[in-house]
């Protein structure tokens, strides 16, 4: 009797255990491996406006638990996150090298180099303007995407491409303006002002910064504002201090370094060319003059300021060879010899694009560039450089809103979209970028 009772109890316990096990397995969420087919943003929520918490490299496999409305729920660094279902495949097999979005059209979110290969050391074929439509070939490599533009294949950094149908980059978050901010058409300091973001207003950011400006979506278009006056919204950052009153203007009589302070602890913000008009406050310290530049207080060497604009024969620098690549030195010496009327040559300087900082670029400033003689000089210089590109190791030349490069030489001088100012459109100088192959990597 006792053994019969024990057996009954054991059967009951086993039955309950089995039922619990079946119930547990019924609510467990099955995970499926998925593999990224390209460099892919990982977001906190299933939305293109959600915060980016990381990225998947092409071929990286993660566990997914569900898929809904075009978004795949994954486990990323131990937490729940989301990726676009469009760019992942089920399984752990790495996608074929020529299958990633082949034939799809994407748009550049800012000015970007089109290069011969996937990397910053590759030569530049041309510079693509913001909003340029490109077609993917299907090939990607470690953050680079191969595209076709005007029947020419090249590589661009994937982070500067968007598949948005309206051509606008994805919004990655919002920020609050801590001062009244001018919204400009491009990141250039003299770019056209297209609007005003009032103090306290919220702006939609894309995560792209250039020339100390943040890219935003403003009134259905891309705009740029000074990044330092944007708050993350969690805490109120100090508002911008009032700027000193402008008391007049002066012209630079030589290339001048823009400094953050008047002392020896200054940060070099780059050079401005001879003839640049500057707004002064009347304050001088340590032989430096205080100016208002790019919406902030800056300093320049006072002795090189004049009330009158310098003539084309005024004193200036003929370019420094410090940090310049061998091919750049070739161009510099050749221009000095054959075009002595070129008094100002910009070489190595800070810039968002790598050409100038790496010592591969020169800006040949044209004196009195708006005059008939100035325009003819720019034309003659640009064509002479084109004719001697092989001996000088030139990669591409930009003059008067037109570009010519070695890789597309059969197409001649190609028109470029307007970028705003005469300087941005290369009307006051001839830009030259030399080949880097055979020299130290950038």
UniProtKB/TrEMBL annotation:
Give the keywords, sorted: Signal
Q: Does the keyword Signal apply?
A: yes
Q: Where is the composition biased (Basic and acidic residues)?
A: 90-105
Q: Where is this region: Disordered?
A: 90-109
* Domain (SH3b): residue spans on this chain: 29-92, 103-165, 170-234
Which positions carry the signal peptide feature in this UniProt record?
1-30
Name of the featured protein: Uncharacterized protein YgiM (DUF1202 family)
Source organism per UniProt: Microlunatus antarcticus
